[in-house]
Amino acid sequence: MQTLEFDDHPREVARPSSRMGVWLLAIPALACVTLLAYFALSYIHRSPAWTLKAFWLPASVATKPILICLPRPIVYRPSEKLYDKYQQMHPNAFATREARRDQILPLLPTDTIQWGDMVPVRNSGPGIGAVVAAVNISKLLTEQGIRFELRFGEEATYADMRDSPVVIIGAINTDWATQLTSGSDFVFDETRGAPNIYETAGAKRVWRMEKNDGIITRDYGLITRQLSGKTGQFLVQVAGISHFGTEAASEFLANEKDLTNVLQARSINLQKKNFQIVVSTDITDGMAGPPHVVAVGTW
Fold first, then answer.
1. CA gyration radius for the chain?
2. Sign, CA torsion 104/217/277/293
């Protein structure tokens, strides 16, 4: 008879090493973390705050302050002699210096004056639209921690703009300002009596200011952003056909939500692309309404 023998010391069953078990658990966890990080970054990169930061990034990393260049238009006002002449016939009119600065001289359309009765004002400032635009943009730059300096008219030289990033407010700022954005998708045509914004290629669309009985009822503005303009520096221009368009363009630029929606809808990469946005605004009681996008160009 065959005898079966049993080993009183059971053999140890082979198990996977503890290190391998840790790795088997870590791989799914790492994949989950990576996926969450991807979605988090995607959300951040699509947020309005990130878009605004990316928009102004070239200025924030520049070594010199960004220049905000405002127009200094030629302004003529009635001479003191003309006020004195009017006051002789109307004793209670324009008796104070302040009255002569902030009240309109009510001459008749048929009254005759000499050219010497009008004097140039050397220290006149920009129009209301340019001032509103400068306030909106300076607020944006302050929130982004970006240093800036103001320049008026010919104070901003071409040499300055070759050395610093720049924001140009207004379509006609200096003799050479319009040259900096010439060749873009949309440009200003300052033809006397019929200024407009027109498309240089494609459908060649044209946007003209609209009036009713001589009063502006609709205006158009243009935002231009170039990573490296003709000066070799980061350039932004905010301008309108009239001051209403300038104000509307700056308002749109300051609205990070609307700006983000437009850039994402066109899949515009702020690190690689230049772009322009044409906006319209309806004028009511002398006030510009909310801006509306009518065209976008990229290159």
1. 32
2. positive
Whose structure tokens read 């003799």?
175
- In 3D space, the residue among 163, 195, 201 whose CA is nearest the CA of residue 178 turns out to be 195
- Yes or no: say if 240 and 124 are a contact pair by the CB < 8 Å rule: no
Top-confidence residue, 270 or 42 = 270
CA-wise closest residue to 163 among 233, 225, 228, 229 = 233
What pLDDT score does 11 carry?
54
Say if CB 277 and CB 295 are below 8 A apart. Answer: yes
Give the phi and the psi of residue 150 in degrees, each rounded to 5: -95, 140
Q: How far is CA 21 from CA 16, 24, 25, 28, 209, in A?
A: 7, 5, 6, 12, 72
Phi, psi of 80 (to 5 degrees): -60, -35
Express each pLDDT in 51-79 by its tens digit.
Answer: 889 999 999 999 999 999 998 888 899 99
